[in-house]
Amino acid sequence: MTASTPEKIQARHLSRNAYLYVRQSTLRQVFENTESTQRQYALRERAVSLGWRIDQVFVIDSDLGQSGACAVDREGFQRLVTEVSMGKAGIVMGLEVSRLARNSSDWHRLLEICALTDTLLLDGDGVYDPAHFNDRLVLGLKGTMSEAELHVLRSRLRGGILNKARRGELEIRFPIGFVYDGEGRVSLDPDQRIQESIREFFLTFRRTASAMATVKAFRRAGLKFPRRIYRGPHKGDVQWDELDHSRALWILHHPLHRSILLWTHTHAQASRRPSGIADFTRGRMDRPHS
């Protein structure tokens, strides 16, 4: 903290509240990067040391596990902006700029509001007054660097995925009904109950030509639809729930299911077989991409 920092904090700032914004980008970071979370919460003591009473320090941590790329889905960030806009905040605290925002438009909007309402900003390096040109310049550069860092991270991850795909080693998560066999090839799920359920789904859809009608038919018949769990202690298990409209649309629009639907429809017309999803009707999976 610089020697000039205390001069920026005036009685008018101390008469208002201090808001600490805590965020981690993913739930995995929340559970694994605990040191970062603890450092963010520790800023409460920093506010007290600067003159705020502990009852004036409000922690906003409802965005834990949310990406900072956009403010739309961040309820906590929206609340923070609202409190600052209403003139309730004397200072806004965050361990670093990337905790507050990784999007330049969101960051500069917060800076503008802070400048208009005479609200200070604090991070791990010191206290800033957005109404002052030099502080505004430094904060703007920090925001730009944070957004650029997000772009670099995304590019690095995407490059790794593409490189693995070029080698033919990229495994993707398949929709329910498809699994990798022992040789790494795509095959039908060996669970006959899952096959029967998906077979009934597509046959019903071919008959009704409507996702909603398919859902209603399943509910009238009391049929459940499988869903594989990919996270948590029950990872890999299959859960049976009522089929809903959004799930029916997701299945129908999934590229793998759509390709099989088109392939089998073409072959069914050519051989004058009864319409339906031929792969599941026969109980096996051919190669629809060949």
UniProtKB/TrEMBL annotation:
Coiled coil feature spans: none
CDD domains: Ser_Recombinase
InterPro entries per record: Resolv_N, Resolvase-like_N_sf, SSR_resolvase
Domain named Resolvase/invertase-type recombinase catalytic: residues: 17-168
Gene3D superfamilies from the UniProt entry: Resolvase, N-terminal catalytic domain
Single Gene Ontology MF annotation: DNA binding
Cited SUPFAM superfamilies: Resolvase-like (SSF53041)
One of the Pfam families matching this protein, by short name: Resolvase
Listed name of the protein: Resolvase/invertase-type recombinase catalytic domain-containing protein
